[in-house]
Every structure is written in C-alpha cells, then in structure tokens.
Amino acid sequence: MSDFHVDRRQVRRNFGRAARTYEQHDALQRQVQDVLLERLDFYLDTPERVLDVGAGTGRGSALLKKKYGKAQVIAVDMAVPMLREAKQHAGWFKPFQRVCAEATSLPFPDHSVDVLHSNLCFQWVDDLAALFGECARVLKPGGLLAFTTFGPDTLRELRAAWASSDEQAHVSRFLDMHDLGDAMISAGLRDPVLDVDRYTMTYSEPRMLLKELQGLGATNADTTRGRGLMGKSHYRRMLETYEGMRVDGRIPATWEVVTAHAWGPPPGQSRRAGGGEIATFSVDSLRGSRRR
What we know:
Distance between the termini: 48 Å
Number of helices: 10
Number of strands: 9
CATH superfamily of the domain at 8-154 and 173-200 and 256-267: Vaccinia Virus protein VP39
Region (Disordered): 262-292
Largest sheet: 7 strands, mixed
EC number: 2.1.1.197
Shape: globular
Low-confidence stretches: 273-292
Structural class: alpha/beta
CATH architecture of the domain at 8-154 and 173-200 and 256-267: 3-Layer(aba) Sandwich
Mean pLDDT: 88
Keywords: Biotin biosynthesis, Methyltransferase, S-adenosyl-L-methionine, Transferase
Radius of gyration: 20 Å
Domain Methyltransferase type: 51-147
InterPro entries: BioC, Malonyl-ACP_OMT, Methyltransf_11, SAM-dependent_MTases_sf
Helix content: 25-40%
Strand content: 15-25%
Order of helices and strands: HHEHEHEEHEHHEHHEEEH
C-alpha cells in the first residue's frame, strides 16, 4: 500500500476557500455523480437514513433527497464554508440536514445508516482502515456503501510536466483500486465491486486547468509537497512541457475514477485488525447467553 499522507488541515483550508467558486468548475464532478447515482439502484429497499459524505456544496445531497424523498438525508463535510453553500440546494419541500464532520469520525450511531454515498471525496483520506471501518460501523447490515474516488493515473499529464521541472511533489497522489478493495474487505464490508473509468478533460492552455483545480479546492495537500516559494523558471518549464502534450490543439488532463460499492456486514462478522480478527455483537444479542 502507498505510504502517502494527506495534510487534513490543508484539505479543509483548500475546500473552505473554494466553497464559493466550486460550482463554477465542477463539470467532471457532476458527470461522475450521475454514474454513481446509477449504483444506488442496487439498493432495493426504502432507506430511512442516507448520508452524503464529502457533500461539498450539496448538489449530490439534493439529488439524493429527490431520489429518496421520505428518507432523512444528511450532508456531511469537513469544511464549514462548503456546508454554508449547500444550504442553497436544501429546498423547502425537500430539505436535507448538514453536519460538519470527517469521514473517519462520523457522528452517527452504529448500524444507523441505510445508504452511505460519497462522490469524489475519499481520495482526500489516507487512513483507509479508519475510513472503511467507519463505513462498516454506521451501515446497517445489508446497507449500501457507494462511492467514487480518484485513482493514481489522475492528472498524469500535469504530473509529468512538473517532473520535467523539478523533483518536488506538485500533484496529489491517489491510491490504487486494489488498495481500496483490500481495505474494504479488511473492514468487513461485504461483496465489494470496483470499476475504473478514465475521463479526459481538455483546456485551451495549462493555466486553465490550474485555475480549475484551485477553484475546486483540489490542489496538492500531500504532506511531502514543497513548502517554499516556487521559482518562475520551474513554473515556465512546466508550462512549456505541458504545451508539448497538446492533442488536436487542446491541453488534455486525465482523471482516473474508481467507482465502487459494498454492503454493510451482518452483526458479528469479523474484520481484520492488527494481524488478527475482531468480531462485534450488539449487547442485546448477547443477553441470555451467560451460563449460571
């Protein structure tokens, strides 16, 4: 598994600053959202509680409320400014709640969630054990986890352009699909299914891509990123290299998107932890089992 680490405070700052500009640049996020919504059709019951983790400005939360009109839909995000923006999508007739929390520490009881939805958020979490452990904890047995996240091939052109300029990390790293699948199984999530798609967005010049990343808040938050001032010559060299990658007169940017779903484990199903296995049971299920 990759040893990359994410600066969570930097992630929160990046997205907080981008809250008001996010929806001016989220064309890819909307396209991926449509694909993710199709995954929810695997859930055949009527959910009572639906979480949208990493809800951002709440577009996805509103779509979930439209799909599950009778359910309690809760938008969860770590950046308060994003949740403030999300208020505009919480309609009078189809409202959803907003909660500030991190994906690795969800403030909800065990086995209380029917559907946990997350669109392009999990790539900002480096502790997969904690992430999927929380998903397994809050999901009801048979509840659905459906999410999308970026894979390691994302922004490969920008990464290569920067590599020609210096050896610093300018682009965030993302985990492989196999790492995600292993972590889901280790957390006890059932029957995970993962698929990979690649999207290519094009721009008139490299600066437009950089402007979009900043507008989304999707800038580098890797702890190994350079902290000093960047020289103008390095920046120009990166731009020149990227210019050499034009296809049909446009600057390409690849986005590798992993789409996945899995199911909440039944009570008592073991999960791997520290080289061993842990099984959990509710207190009620153990009552009456004590020998006298």
